[in-house]
Amino acid sequence: MTPAEHTAEHTAEHTAEPAPGRERVAVVVVTFNRADLLTGMLAGLAGLERPADAVFVVDNASTDHTRAVLEACTLPGLVPIHAEENLGGAGGFHLGLRTAFDEGYDVMWLMDDDVVPAPDCLTRLLEAEGDCLVAVREDLSGALVEKAATRFDLRNPLSVRPKTASVETTFGERAAMPATVPVENAAFEGFLVRREVVARIGFPDPSYFIFYDDVDYVVRARRAGFTVNAVRDAVLVRQLDFNQQHDLAGWKGYFMYRNLFAVHFRYGENALVRAKPWLIAGAVVALSPLRGGRAEARNVSRALRDARRMRRPDPAALPPARA
């Protein structure tokens, strides 16, 4: 999958000159038809005590008033990128990260349109040690809702779901966390990556479209020897409740199954783990009369077939050619 042609009105006045020796930070936001959430998110970026040097917003061909929000926004460094088609979250983050990397930024901070950073969030991230860093999410009540995996098991064939423990389930509340927590999987919601990581492992794989593109990227980073740490004091407030129970008989269910299977085919650490997609698909089909019906059975069968074609990354995700 190649990115659609896009418009990036990026001129010198969009970015402030960094102080000598200071890392140049670009925020990459992906949005689709959530203009009101995007407004709040951009206001949060405007309130950062350490502002980003550029904010690349990939608008995935929204049909609401997203374009008007971006045109009216006065956030310094804002660079709208208007895709001609919906590239999905995966394609949007691929396009935004590649653009920021090509522009020469040292640090790229990825996030969705439904989170708002605390004023010191970026400051706390840049103070922390790690090649990749994760801002820790809470909900509107202040409760810890960070789903980054403290254990992501691609070795045990009996683990139906690879994520067996998360920051939230391990610690319960932010105060119980140490200053940094090594994680094995994280979402592109407050995920900070340094330039040397991108140069080594490449870009998010746009072929995922939605779901598991961030999982794939973190697995690649860790297998290349890079550290990924959640930073306790970097606060990111999620504006929406989590709804992890997607309709597996609907269109999202197809992508959830397909991309979960692709991760197992690519990164399963033994033959039994790499065979898990076949076992899961068989079980779903066998149980379909009792749960998702024919629609889920069709989804999982098609997902298994298509995931086999994703055993190798999309070439667009590969590292950039060295100069």
In short:
This protein is α/β, with parallel strands linked by helices. It is built from ten helices and twelve strands. The N terminus is likely disordered.
Architecture overview:
The protein is of the alpha/beta class. The chain has ten helices and twelve strands. The protein has helices at residues 35-46, 66-72, 88-102, 121-127, 167-171, 195-201, 213-223, 251-267, 271-287, 293-307; strands spanning 6-8, 25-31, 54-59, 78-83, 107-112, 115-117, 132-138, 149-152, 163-166, 180-182, 191-194, 228-238. The strands form two sheets. Strands 1, 2, 3, 4, 5, 6, 7, 10, 11 and 12 form a ten-stranded mixed beta sheet that branches. Helix 2 links the parallel strand 3 (54-59) and strand 4. Helix 8 runs parallel beside helix 10 and helix 9 packs antiparallel against helix 10 (293-307). It is globular and about 60 Å long. The model is unreliable at 1-16 (pLDDT under 50).
